[in-house]
Amino acid sequence: MFTGIKTRQPGWPEILIGLIAFAVLLFAFALGFSQLPADRPILQGVVGSTAGGFAGVGAFVAAYGLRIRTLPPFGFRRVASRWLVIAAGMGVAGYGLNYIIQMVYAASFGYDDPQGILHAAARGGALPFFASLLGGAAFTPFGEEILFRGVVANALNRYGAWAGIGVSSVIFGLAHGISVILPVAIMVGMLAAILFRRTGSVWPGIILHCVYNGSNSVASVLGISPVP
User: Fold this and answer.
1) What is the pTM of this model?
2) What percent of the chain has pLDDT over 90?
3) pLDDT of the residue at 227
4) How far apart are CA 47 and CA 218, in angstroms?
5) Would the pLDDT of 152 be above 90?
6) What stretches pass through the bilayer (predicted)?
7) Residue 7 is assigned to a structural domain of this protein
8) How far apart are alpha carbons 228 and 217 in whole angstroms?
9) 4 within domain boundaries
């Protein structure tokens, strides 16, 4: 397991300011989002795909500027290319697990798609597809990973794997709301947190997250869904 370098590492101050900033920025984004025309689901989907990136990057900047103000302690470190390949494979495997989770959830609680507008954007033509892919499979994974792995999982790793992987993944899941997305986000968070704990770098988690979200966009275009 990666044990870190001998510099100040993110701790509770960074966790708290990061999560508070994330909630505030997400709320601000929601206020702006509510002004979009209700009858334009494709536009809503393209804009909505950037929510996690907007809030994640802003929250990371708040945590970064608090005490440390240097990127390596937050996991901005080079990593062997094999970890990036492993991460991409885990992203594909994670999307397969997503199907199982959604089918179990639907059988237990019924199914309501909270990401309908994102699917609408992906299916809205070439331009909306690529715009939503850029927002949802590049910008949002980057923003969420640098916050939830680079700050939260990073700081919690000092308490052991149960906190660095388990607790941080639950926090990541709750940040996505109470719906079918909750268990799916926890699963993705656990895979990314495992990679971060092993490598000390945010880049494998970013690759995993990009591949997972990108697979979701492609599946939307193809009309593939784990539930009716």
Assistant:
1) 0.93
2) 80
3) 55
4) 18
5) yes
6) 12-36, 42-63, 83-105, 117-139, 171-196
7) no
8) 17
9) no
Q: Which amino acid is at 93?
A: A
Instruction: Identify whether 227 is part of a domain.
Output: no
Number of domains in the chain: 1
| Residue 6, in any domain of the structure | no
pLDDT at 3: 46
Question: What amino acid is encoded at 216 in this protein?
Answer: N
pLDDT in tens, 58-96: 999 999 999 999 999 999 999 999 999 999 999 999 999
| DSSP letter string, the chain | -----SS----HHHHHHHHHHHHHHHHHHHHHHTTS-TT-HHHHHHHHTTHHHHHHHHHHHHHHTTTT--SGGGT-----HHHHHHHHHHHHHHHHHHHHHHHHHHHHH----TTHHHHHHHTS-HHHHHHHHHIIIIIHHHHHHHHIIIIIIHHHGGG-HIIIIIIHHHHHHHTT-SSTHHHHHHHHHHHHHHHHHHHS-SHHHHHHHHHHHHHHHHHHHHT--S--
Radius of gyration of the chain (CA): 17
Q: Which domain holds residue 145?
A: 12-222
CA trace torsion 205, 152, 175, 215 (10° rounding): 0
Q: How far apart are CA 114 and CA 121, in angstroms?
A: 14
